[in-house]
Design goal:
It contains five helices and 23 strands. By secondary structure, the chain is mainly β. The strands form five sheets. The chain has a five-stranded antiparallel β-sheet, with no helix packed on it.
Length: 318
């Protein structure tokens, strides 16, 4: 495995103010996520994952990640063995991929589940978005017939979002908007998602508030990236660890990790305890996931997309 270090440009960006201030309670994150190397585990198979827009750690199998592709691709789940990089495709019967932008894994009543976020809306014109709920399949399942679609609206009008996470410990689904400045955090009770999957009822997100801690592009970033620099603070993915203690958040310019207090207030955690994890410069990073050991996985929507792994210092057996 090849390590990917934070480049000199990335280090300069941090030195010039790209790093956000964090609360004292996040000091542990500094120790566990220093500006260190990511392992380059391998590259995604472009023929199977041309636009990996969502990724989740399996709740049923070790060394397994699940993926979905973005809009314009088939309604499929792709499993990957992180040791061999071998992939398998499972087709979702009767489900459409309108704009799949994220994927979350979680456990519910002792069983592993997956939740697909059909929440993309570049022009904020969708009257409703959808969450697709299904038991986590076996990677050998070629067709999935038990996926259920749940229709959701926003309380304040259409929103573009690419970030979906499930706090399985407290029973909430979270969505973080992309194009709002600052982004807005929304949530749903997980139990109501299960109920609506059976009844067909339409749900509405609860607006939690704005996340103001993500720094906007610096003048240096705007000069270094004249075409896309202005988008570097947009939120493209989010995940919550199975133990409900940490969240990983991805933008086009940086990966972040936050630790929540016992009260489970994710809005406060994202605003006060967001720590940059020193992501190397990548083209179009749109997928992130975090496991119980705090290991963060990241990849992109490009040909030759690298699968990167960041292991926190406390969990690094080497």
């Amino acid at each position: 495995m090849r390590a990917v270090a934070l480049g000199t440009i990335g280090a300069s960006l941090l030195a010039t103010g790209c790093m956000t201030s964090i609360a004292d309670s996040a000091s542990q994150l500094r120790a566990e996520y220093p500006l260190a190397s990511y392992d380059r585990v391998g590259e995604l198979d472009f023929s199977v994952l041309p636009e990996a827009s969502g990724m989740a750690v399996s709740r049923a199998r070790a060394d397994t990640l699940w993926f979905v592709n973005d809009a314009g691709n088939a309604a499929e789940l792709i499993s990957m063995d992180t040791r061999s990089m071998k992939t398998r495709i499972s087709k979702l019967d009767g489900i459409r991929n309108r704009d799949w932008e994220d994927l979350a894994g979680f456990s519910w009543q002792g069983k592993p589940w997956l939740l697909i976020g059909d929440i993309g809306d570049n022009n904020a014109v969708r009257d409703e978005v959808k969450l697709i709920l299904l038991p986590e399949p076996s990677p050998t399942d070629k067709k999935i017939k038990n996926a259920r679609s749940v229709t959701i609206t926003y309380p304040d009008g259409a929103r573009d979002a690419e970030s979906l996470a499930v706090d399985q410990q407290r029973g909430f689904v979270y969505v973080l908007s992309k194009r709002d400045n600052p982004p807005v955090l929304y949530r749903l009770k997980l139990a109501t998602v299960f109920a609506a999957a059976q009844s067909g009822d339409q749900l509405q997100f609860e607006r939690m508030g704005s996340v103001t801690s993500v720094p906007q592009p610096t003048p240096l970033e705007l000069r270094l990236f004249p075409r896309y620099g202005k988008y570097r603070a947009q939120i493209t993915a989010m995940d919550i660890s199975p133990d409900g203690k940490r969240a990983a958040v991805l933008t086009y310019g940086e990966a972040y990790v936050a630790e929540v207090s016992e009260d489970g207030d994710w809005l406060r955690a994202l605003n006060e305890a967001l720590y940059p994890a020193g992501m190397p410069i990548l083209p179009q990073p749109e997928t992130i996931t975090i496991d119980n050991d705090g290991v963060i996985w990241i990849t992109t929507e490009q040909r030759d997309a690298p699968l990167l792994r960041l292991t926190p210092a406390a969990a690094d057996s080497s």
